[in-house]
Amino acid sequence: xxxxxxxxxxxxxxxxxxxxxxxxxxxxxxxxxxxxxxxxxxxxxxxxxxxxxxxxxxxxxxxxxxxxxxxxxxxxxxxxxxxxxxxxxxxxxxxxxxxxxxxxxxxxxxxxxxxxxxxxxxxxxxxxxxxxxxxxxxxxxxxxxxxxxxxxxxxxxxxxxxxxxxxxxxxxxxxxxxxxxxxxxxxxxxxxxxxxxxxxxxxxxxxxxxxxxxxxxxxxxxxxxxxxxxxxxxxxxxxxxxxxxxxxxxxxxxxxxxxxxxxxxxxxxxxxxxxxxxxxxxxxxxxxxxxxxxxxxxxxxxxxxxxxxxxxxxxxxxx
Length: 319
Hints:
CATH class of the domain at 114-306: Alpha Beta
Structural class: alpha/beta
Number of helices: 10
Protein name: Polysaccharide deacetylase family protein
InterPro entries: Glyco_hydro/deAcase_b/a-brl, NODB_dom, Polysacc_deacetylase_ArnD
Number of strands: 8
CATH superfamily of the domain at 114-306: Glycoside hydrolase/deacetylase
CATH architecture of the domain at 114-306: Alpha-Beta Barrel
Order of helices and strands: HHEHEHEHHEHHEEHEHE
Shape: elongated
GO molecular function: hydrolase activity, acting on carbon-nitrogen (but not peptide) bonds
Strand content: 5-15%
Helix content: 55-70%
Radius of gyration: 35 Å
Largest sheet: 6 strands, parallel
C-alpha cells in the first residue's frame, strides 16, 4: 500500500514537472513573440517618421513650384504686353503712312497714350461706396468685376449711374461650384448677368475669372483642362475676358499694408502704356481705399489717363 502511494506521488510530481516545463516554453515563446512585435512596431514608427519627412519635403517642393509658376506667369504677361505693343505698332505704322501729316500726328498721339484701367474685384461692399466717392472726386472712370449680392442693389445702380463699367466675376465666386464643369460656370455667370440686367438694365459683356484664367485651384474640381475649356467657351460665346498685367497685391493678405499696395501698382505700371490694374473692394480691403487717391495722383504724374474697360479695350490674357 505504501509502495503504491509512493508511485502515485511520483507520477503526480512527474506530471507537474512536465506541465511546468511546457508552461515555461510557452512563456518563453510569448516573450519572444512580444519582442518581435515590439521590434515591428518600432520599425513601423521609423517608417512613418520617414514618410512624414518625405511629405514635408514634397510640400516644400510644391510651394517652390507654385512660386516659380507665378513668376513665369508674370513674365508671360509682360512678354505679351511687349508683343501686343509691337504688333500694334506694326499695324498702325502701315495705316499712318497713308494719312496726311495732321492725321499722322493724331495717330501718333493715340499710339503713345498711356491708359490705366483700375479694376475692382469681389464687390460691391461698404468699401465700394467709398471708392466711388474717390473716383467721383478725381473724375476717374473704373471697372467693377462684381459678384451677386441682392442686398447691394443700390451700389450696382450707383456704379452704372457714375459712368463706370460692370464686369461679370460670377455670381457665387465659389470655386468648387463654378469650376466643376463648363455648364456650371455658365449657369453661375448667366445668373449674375440676369441679376445685373434686372437691377441696372446693363448686361455685362466682359468677364474676369475668379483667380484668373490660369488659376490651378480649378483643377481640384474640374480637372487640369477645365480652364482651357471654359475660356474657349466664353470667347466663343462673344464675351471678352480680362486678366491683369499689374497687381496691387492687396489679395495676398486679408488687409494688405497701404504702402505695399501703392508701391506694387506704381512699379508694375511704370514701363507700360496700357496698365490693367487688379484691386479688390471687399469689406476687409480698407487699405485699398486708403491707397487709391495716391495711386491715381502718382499714375497721373507718370502720364497715364484713366478709362473703364469695354470689349474693345486692351485685354491681358494668361491663357
